[in-house]
Amino acid sequence: MTSTTDSAVTILGYNTWLFGNAVKDVGQHQAGHRASETTNPFDRLAGHVTIGRHGLTAMLKIEVPEVAWGPFAAFGQGIQFDSKRSVPPLAEITAHFDRITGLLMAGLPNVAQSLLDSPASLPIPGESPTMRHQLAFMTMHETYHIGQMGLLKKHMGGEGIMAE
Q: Does any domain span residue 144?
């Protein structure tokens, strides 16, 4: 394990806990809640975080299961919200998050230093970004969206994501 992967494991662990708190007690009838016409619904944010984590796991060369992209295609990079595009039920999104998290957390300590030092596979900010930078950026990115989920949950009258 490197200091980079050690830090990522810690932060991803917190994010996993926060994600679990965000989806806790949110029923399917609430999954499509949005704060306004210009914001994404709760289930789209949960799906985006899940597919982002799936993609990060694959980018780090950790074996991932294939996703039946059908409704999961609504969460692709750069996809804008479209109320006509179907998405999986929140329980299915959460189940995939849990599956991919187990694979990521088990594989992250074994990611090769040479992979972390290689050029980033996505356009991320910075001069000559590496996969190490991409890991940090993607981890920060999911934290941002989990925070949005927490705000939407509070908007629906639920507890905050820091609640025990």
A: yes
